[in-house]
Design a protein that fits this description.
Largest sheet: 7 strands, mixed
Shape: globular
Radius of gyration: 28 Å
Distance between the termini: 22 Å
CATH class of the largest domain: Alpha Beta
Number of helices: 21
Structural class: alpha+beta
Number of strands: 22
Number of domains: 3
Helix content: 40-55%
CATH architecture of the largest domain: Alpha-Beta Complex
CATH superfamily of the largest domain: 2-enoyl-CoA Hydratase, Chain A, domain 1
Length: about 725
């Protein structure tokens, strides 16, 4: 992958230099035009399947950008859209000439309409809602036209706000009913009297207003450059759903999400009018270790060591976070209003904070006095700056070794909801389970294929292996599941097909392309540069990986795969790689057949499928009554059905789960980690998919004569 990225950058740097992308060339242009020019150039030169920027492209950008910034059609008027439409077939020409007049017009009008919307929602919420009226709202906004004038727009806001308030009103009315059933009428205390229906209606509107006030407070913090990023990404998204422009701060967040760590104080913050509220404390971080701060505390001022503190009340949350985070070992002083109202100044030393939930974790499963292992992998994480740092492949290798030491007889690798990540980690991880051979094939645009092999003949785990997947298992997850399926090394249990992302992206810093630049950091573009293919030659693009044992889940009937995204690349196939299926099992096909029969007759699985169909029908319902009595009847029907499906979460597999010995030792110092693992184990015990994975491990028989204990790999 590095070789490919170096090639792309090399070509671009040569081409860019020859095209004269210098500071002088743009001395009269602003940063937006520079970004637009750079990004469209990179897309045309580096994308796996570049598109023609023509009139059709222009129409798509026009429609998609309006939809992105006003999806519920409650800002723009019909007259605005008609004015914008003068550009509908001109955006291709504007993009090529770095003309941003369309964006400027739409942005300026949006800011104006949002200012008007602030007045409208406050006007609407001054008047009580009549929940006795027979009114409906259609929430299929895509098919809705834009409002003709302010009066029609205000009516649209009224219906949307009435709908938004209805759930709160219902909750308060049910509290009134409950209080009426248990209230002691002889108490005579005013505080014991339940809220009236009128008071419930007033309180509900106030709650909706508070939510909107906070939303528009957030919107007011957005700068013009934030909206321009939306415009850039509308253009970028026309190429494929995984090509994406990162503004500089977004690039930092992406790197953090992939590495699972950052430098700071270890707290998640939420903007409030009165300061930055601590929303979550990350286990193991400076705030957690210090113990003085707690969820709900408000940070009011931030001071660097030896400097005067800066008031962050009313400051953009991103700017406040920039002040709070910093390099490991540096100190920050936080002026905090505690939950009890007291004021304190807390000094913290910043450190590297690891997001524990991002990393692989494992558990022992006990059944019939036998022990099996489960490794949960949320993503294929890696530190792009230093591969020798913690990454998914080395962590899974460690967990496999630990489980072997615990004496497990079979292994489950849980890739459900794993959206992918580093390709290099997949190849290394697959090599833990086979002797050697190809893992994945990769093809660049207009070039032949490259085969990525496991060349290490050692096997770390040669016992029974099951891989769990679902519709949200994507990209790197699909590579691993497909390779193990093609080798017949593992039995894949899960959805009919996985997500279907068969493309490879490289992140290209735009600063590396410009010879000199006076506009500051330019960010980066995540660019689709390759497609990957199974070793049998088929692409996972759109089709995903089809499970050996197909079982429904709650996503089964909901559109969320690659095939349901905008502008996905197509499916194709290439010649297969040279590989031999693993012959370590003596009953592979029979085990798959037995499992399929069990799942077809499993009452819990039937209930899950019934729930999935119901969720789909609920999603398809777009006409909703705003009459309270009609709403209550629907809610009661909904609750009965919902309560019926709650039995899914009450399932008991009768399996026991235990942490590994090394974690048990950590629990003495980390009670939060113990609580997290206990909660995880309780959920696993209710998981019918894990139960079936254990059944499969029990059924699988390995050819121990041919595949005895092999050298430990890793």
């Amino acid at each position: 992958m590095k070789r490919n990225l170096a090639y792309i950058l090399g070509v671009m740097l040569i081409s860019v230099a020859s095209c004269g992308f210098t500071n002088k060339s743009f001395e009269n242009d602003d940063k937006d035009k520079l970004l637009l020019d750079l990004i469209t150039y990179v897309l045309q030169k580096g994308h796996y399947e570049p598109k023609d920027i023509n009139d059709d492209f222009s129409v798509n950008v026009f429609n998609d950008f309006i939809d992105v910034i006003d999806p519920t059609k409650r800002y723009f008027l019909d007259e605005d859209i008609k004015e914008f439409e003068q550009y509908k077939f001109q955006l291709d020409d504007q993009i090529k000439s770095t003309d941003i007049s369309f964006f400027n017009l739409v942005y300026e009008r949006l800011i104006k309409r949002m200012g008007e919307a602030k007045v409208i929602y406050k006007e609407v919420l001054e008047t009580p809602f009549d929940y006795g009226a027979n009114e409906n709202i259609n929430i299929d906004y895509e098919k809705m036209s834009f409002a003709a004038d302010r009066e029609n727009l205000k009516e649209r806001w009224r219906l949307q706000l009435k709908y938004a308030t209805l759930g709160t009103y219902d909750s308060k009315m049910r509290q009134i009913q409950k209080a009426g059933e248990f209230n002691d009428e002889d108490s005579g205390k005013a505080e014991d009297k339940p809220m009236t229906a009128d008071e419930a209606e007033v309180s509900s509107r106030a709650s909706t207003k508070k939510t909107l006030d906070e939303f528009f407070d957030f919107v007011d913090d957005l700068e013009r450059k934030d909206w321009f990023v939306q415009y850039i990404n509308t253009i970028v998204d026309e190429f494929d759903p995984h090509t994406f422009y990162f503004a500089p701060k977004d690039k930092e967040r992406f790197d953090m999400s992939m590495s699972g760590k950052f430098e700071g104080i270890g707290a998640r913050l939420q903007k409030k009018p009165e300061g930055a509220k601590i929303d979550d404390i990350i286990s193991g971080g400076p705030v957690w270790r210090d113990g003085q701060l707690e969820v709900g505390d408000l940070i009011l001022k931030v001071g660097q060591e030896g400097e005067e503190p800066i008031n962050i009340v009313g400051m953009r949350l991103d700017d406040a976070i920039e002040l709070i985070k910093g390099p490991k070992g540096t100190k920050v002083n936080l002026t905090v209003r505690k939950i009890d109202g007291s004021m304190e100044t807390v000094a913290l030393t910043r450190d590297v904070v690891e997001l524990e939930e991002s990393f692989a974790k494992s558990a022992n499963i006990i059944k019939d006095d036998k022990k099996y292992g489960l490794i949960d992998l949320p993503k294929f994480y890696v530190d792009f700056d230093d591969y020798t740092e913690r990454n998914a492949a080395t962590d899974v290798a460690k967990e496999v070794d630990r489980l072997k030491q615990e004496g497990v007889e079979g292994l489950i690798l849980d890739l459900r909801d794993n959206g992918g990540g580093s390709l290099k980690t997949v190849v290394e991880m697959a090599g833990l389970f086979i002797k050697d051979g190809p893992i994945v094939q990769v093809r660049s645009s207009g070039k032949g294929k490259d085969v990525y092999d496991d060349k290490d003949e050692r096997i770390q785990w040669d016992g029974p292996l099951v891989i769990l997947v679902n519709e949200l298992s994507a990209s790197a997850s699909e590579i691993l599941a497909a390779a193990m399926q093609d080798y017949k090394r593992a039995i894949v249990i899960g959805s009919k097909q996985t997500f279907g992302k068969g493309t490879v992206q490289n992140v290209i810093p735009l600063d590396n392309i410009v010879r000199s630049n006076e506009h500051g950091e330019l960010g980066a573009i995540k660019l689709t540069t390759q497609k990957f293919y199974r070793i049998n030659g088929g692409s996972t693009q759109l089709e995903g990986v089809k499970s050996d044992v197909v079982v429904p889940d709650k996503y089964s009937y909901i559109d969320l795969g690659e095939r349901d995204q905008s502008n996905p690349l197509g499916w194709d196939k290439i010649s297969p790689a040279d590989y031999k299926p693993w012959d370590g099992y003596i009953d592979y096909e029979q085990t798959v057949s037995n499992s399929s029969k069990r799942m077809a007759n499993n009452a819990q699985i039937k209930l899950i499928e019934e729930n999935a169909k119901w969720l789909k029908s609920e999603q398809d319902e777009t006409e909703i009554s705003l009459n309270y009595e009609a709403y209550r009847k629907e809610e009661q029907k909904h609750k009965l059905k919902s309560d019926y499906f709650k039995t899914i979460a009450e399932y008991d597999s009768k399996l026991s789960f235990e942490s590994l010995k090394y974690e048990e030792e950590l629990f003495t110092k980390d009670s939060v980690l113990r609580e997290k693992r206990d909660r995880w184990h309780k959920n696993l015990a209710k998981d019918v998919y894990v139960e079936e994975a254990v059944n499969v491990l029990q059924d699988l028989k390995t050819n121990n004569i041919k595949h005895g204990k092999l050298a430990v790999k890793g």
